[in-house]
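Tip: read the tokens left to right.
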């Protein structure tokens, strides 16, 4: 099993301004663990908490973020499938 987590830190001098809006990154976590049915397969769980703080409606940015997560998972699956074929593990 593997896990990764992150949390936003505040840094002096990098506050919002009229020219720049800084997104807020809440607790984020990725967990990889073998499935109970097939230990050669991995369950990928990604919890994402982010507020882009832009002028777009939050409902739209939430939809785009969830789609980008799905796209990432699909590209990761393709990448791993292509590398598994080349690996003699």
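Filled-in amino acids:
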């Amino acid at each position: 099993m593997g896990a990764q987590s992150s949390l936003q830190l505040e840094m002096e001098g990098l506050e919002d301004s009229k020219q720049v809006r800084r997104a807020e990154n809440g607790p984020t976590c990725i967990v990889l663990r073998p499935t109970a049915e097939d230990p050669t397969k991995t369950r990928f769980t990604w919890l994402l908490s982010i507020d882009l703080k832009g002028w777009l409606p939050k409902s739209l940015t939430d939809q785009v973020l969830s789609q980008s997560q799905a796209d990432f998972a699909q590209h990761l699956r393709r990448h791993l499938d292509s590398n598994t074929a080349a690996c003699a593990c």
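The longest strand covers residues 28-34. Helices lie at 58-86.
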